[in-house]
Design brief:
The chain is α/β, with parallel strands linked by helices. It is built from 17 helices and 12 strands. It has 2 domains: 220 residues, no CATH class; 238 residues, Alpha/Beta hydrolase fold, catalytic domain (Rossmann fold).
Length: 509
Amino acid sequence: MRTLVLIALVLVTVVAAGVHRQVKPNKKNQRDIFLQLLTRSAAPEQPRKPTASNTPDKAVVVENFFTTQVDHFNLQNTEQWTLRYFSVTDYYKPGGPILIFLAGYRPLYPQMIDEQTLLYEMGREMNGAVYGFETRFYGNSRITEDVSTENLRLLNADQVLADLAEFVTYLRNEVLEDPTARVLVAGAEYGGGLAAWFRIRYPHLGNVAWASSGYMNAIMNFEAFSEAWGETLINHGSPQCYNEIFVAFHVMQNLIDLGRADVLFEKLNICHEIDPENEFQVQYLFFTLMGSIELFTIARKNLDDFASVCEDITSADGDTAVDAFANWFNNRWGDDDDECLVSDPEVTVEKLQNIEWDSLSNLIGGRQALYQECSEFGWFFTTDSPFQPFGDRVNIEFFIEMCRRVFGEWITGETIGRAVDRANNRFGGANPGSSFTHFVNGGADPWRTISITRNLTLDATSVVIPNQLGSADVYATSEDDAPELLEAKRNLKAKLAGYLFPIDPFENP
């Protein structure tokens, strides 16, 4: 049932006498929140402590490389490239399973499969070999000489899954020399979607899939994200905090409409003055402001961050709602005297247009992630739902225009819509034909609205863990785990082990 909060919007008069339109003094650093939103990277996740009775030795993570086809679906193209992967074989015994974690939108890091992860824990318990798989075009898996739009046509889920199919065959036949080795594919977020889709498309190669907060349902206008985020804010922050943010964003909109963008320029630590007549810039500003608080509260996967934000915003007695939000925004995102926040979309567009591998946006996967959103999945956060606190200034036209400016005139609302439909037709969207797949989501995670949160069949099951954000289940069992999370991990391990081995291969006859 949707939580409704009755809010009386009171016009707040902001005194800004003597403020002149200007450009901020030059700063050494300009932080680009838009790029961080593309790659979901606001802060490093905190290390988790395993239980005292289950403390593993430090994993030996080895970097490896695997050669596969550049284009799996064009027989006339015989070019090959080298994909990077990691391996941990500390506990492997012949007959044990292959456990593969898919990095998704992110570069591959050793921490994705080391002793801090549940997959490593499962590998130890099942005598399995654990691998981390890097997606083409991300991290060091540089498939082409640059990241031009022409080359990015080789970046799509079908090509990634075909890479994975070749990789599984390689591991079975050449690395472990066990052609019948059982295989579990796992991933978080986009990687979780890939894991479930691999089981659908290549069931003979992926015996079992584990999708942690998996992005499953492509949708162009993802208005439900901010709506679900608002519900989490009410439940784990406070209704008063929701109201303050609601008022702040609506007053900021009114200021823009009244031609008083100079007030926001003064109050917020942004780099560029705002032109109220430039709709693209105004939408960019509000998306950045909205995204800044959404990203901060969910990036570390710690629900306490909602309460922390709300304490900052609601504890400023006497301040207007705009002042309270501006104080939080400046303290959290611009507390460095030499730093301001990018508020001109052309600055971000120029970064995203850079096709060289060593540019910042490409090193973190920003251009690549945007391309996949524009050409396959959508997932654009808008403010079209009335049941969210961020006003109504971020609409789908903003994202269509961003896609067009970065990648070319060929992108339109119609092309994105067709791409989204095609993705759901290929993989099933919210109703995939899954089997031997387990979907796990956090009950407080806004991304759960595009995942699978119900049992599909007897062997395509789902669990929603109360009071958790996304992918809490990927970490090793910890003494800090809430009882519901601990139970979910235990059930997950038992279920996946049962799918892999109905009969224990190491049990004495």
